[in-house]
Design brief:
The protein has 248 residues and is an all-alpha fold. It has one domain: Glycerol uptake facilitator protein, CATH 1.20.1080.10. 74% of the residues lie in helices and 0% in strands. It contains 10 helices and no strands. The protein has helices at 2-27, 32-53, 63-71, 80-101, 103-106, 111-118, 125-145, 154-172, 181-200, 207-238. Helix 6 runs antiparallel to helix 9.
Length: 248
């Protein structure tokens, strides 16, 4: 059955990714260069620490990966909380260094520019949930699927991860989806404290709706990627990769 699953899922991914990238070039001509650069940037941001710490911690750098691997019993549960605590601490440190190095230029940006840097662009609750779910599912499923490539070395694995993250960024746009709760929590909290709340604190009538929107945003970009990644890992685990017909 794996050969049929492969053709079904593979063709689905092929058509969806191809159409999505073409769509971006047709309807987002003004921002396609920026989208490519952002996608490549986040992909490379994972590559460098992967080379440095690949044989030490994995590395995960993402709680959705840690939780997903624990769920399918490919990572020891006793390390889970320690990994996630270090991921949050690392995110705070990275955010602090970024702000210190770029403090002069950051003083000149407006609220929308700050949102693109620190947070996610709001494209509506339903659309954002769907995009976040699909992006995280594809990312986790694809990363686990690298194991099916025969004779692959550790170094090449990270090249594959770059390609996966780059394609996901082109299709779903990392300005809209996080695919990583850690990439959202600390930067978005910083944005809310120093840009959003600061500018809207005098608008009393909108206070309740703002609180609701804040809660929804945190749920979407933290909970959805974890749920989606776990489902992606379970879907990968469900497929009969050891089929006798595999690679014949």
């Amino acid at each position: 059955m794996i050969i049929y699953y492969g053709e079904l899922i593979g063709t689905c991914m092929y058509i969806f990714i191809g159409l999505s990238i073409v769509f971006a070039t047709v309807f987002e001509k003004e921002s396609i260069g920026k989208k490519v650069l952002i996608s490549l940037g986040w992909a490379l941001s994972y590559f460098l620490p992967s080379i440095a710490f690949g044989e030490v911690s994995g590395p995960h750098l993402n709680p959705m990966i840690t939780i997903s691997l624990v769920t399918i019993k490919k990572f020891e549960r006793r390390f889970m909380w320690g990994y996630m605590i270090m991921q949050i601490a690392g995110s705070i440190l990275g955010l602090l260094l970024f702000n210190i190095i770029n403090r002069d230029k950051l003083k000149k940006i407006n609220k929308f520019q700050a949102m693109e840097i620190y947070s996610m662009i709001d494209e509506g609750i339903v659309k954002t949930i769907i995009n976040e779910f699909l992006a995280s599912f594809f990312t986790m499923f694809s990363i686990l699927s690298i194991a099916q490539v025969f004779g692959i070395s550790v170094e090449i694995i990270y090249i594959y991860v770059i390609a996966i993250m780059f394609v996901v960024g082109l299709v779903f746009d990392y300005r809209v989806v996080s695919t990583n709760p850690i990439r959202f929590i600390c930067p978005h909290t910083f944005f809310m404290l120093f840009y959003e709340i600061k500018q809207t604190k005098n608008q009393k009538g909108k206070k309740r709706s703002k609180k609701n929107n804040i809660a929804i945003n945190y749920l979407i970009h933290i909970v959805i990627p974890i749920i989606s990644a776990v489902l992606g890992a379970m879907a990968y685990n469900y497929l009969p990769w050891s089929s006798a017909m595999l690679h014949q």
